[in-house]
Structure prediction request, 277 residues.
Amino acid sequence: VAVVTGSNKGIGFAIVEQLCKQLGSSWAVYLTSRDKARGADALSQLKKRGVEPRFHQLDIDSQESVDRLAAYLKGTYGGLDILVNNAAIAYKGDSTAPFAEQAEVTIATNFWNTLRVCDALFPLLKPHARVVHLCSSVSDMALNKASPELQKKLTQPMSLDEVKQLMSDFVARAKAGTVQEAGWPQTAYGVSKVGVRLMTYAQARDIKGDDIVINCCCPGYVDTDMTSHKGPKTIYEGADTPVYLATLPPGIKEPIGEHLYERKVVPWAVKPGFTIA
Ligand code: NDP
Prediction:
């Protein structure tokens, strides 16, 4: 059983299509969408493309919705084999929303509510389960732009509780207008993906279970609504690394607890002059 969050469009849609094609009809691959009508539309588009995933409503911003999916998976299948945390939001560069609001809302969906999905679904992960979080190379950019003190802190191994504290502090700083004094770059989306990256490292260290592998990745700069269709990659190119990580074979020794770009591990380290390829 495979579940892809936020998969009614964009990269998540392509991940569902590729998982259906690669895994075959013995798998139940779930396209999920917070809006049932958008989910139904995506299913009919995929049917025309020759694949028929299952559907379940999922709004990661709603605890009730996440709990309903968890109960359904437990009751129907007794667990889960693949989880792709793809759902996320980004304010547009020209948004006039106050930075405090952008920080709170973006960190809520991209960090806290991705974590909420993990909290609900990790207990259901079966042996050899694969978990993939959609992160981003903007996490490297945010690290590179942080103050030297903050860079030092961010690159030490951190517990999940410390990562949570870091994200709470960032939002509190955003509300107080003191993000830069604390050494952070002024990017809510970038910091949310720093949170996802550090969450991946912490979860991979902590996870108990038989051969459960957690990684995160950057899909590249992809032609989707999120990028206002400015990215050069197709959604299928963007889906390549997430699908690779979601289908890592049993007993794999690496990558485990890593961030990948184009199927290659990207170390979490300050890289002066880092820019997104
Ligand atoms: P899109 O904006 O095209 O799609 C995002 C998807 O997430 C949509 O299906 C959206 O649903 C869903 N979503 C948003 N909020 C929620 C929520 N609360 N609950 C459930 N679903 C939700 O984004 P992309 O396809 O471009 O991005 C996919 C992932 O890849 C994201 O994690 C993004 O950060 C990451 N990424 C993308 C890059 C790019 O170049 N595109 C680069 C680096 C990383 P709805 O249609 O209802 O809004």
Notes: Residues 99-121 form the longest helix (23 residues). The first strand starts at residue 2 and ends at 4. The chain has one domain: 2-265. The pocket of NDP is lined by residues 5-6, 8-12, 34-35, 38, 58-61, 86-89, 109, 134, 136, 218-219, 221-222, 224-227, 231 (CB under 6 Å).
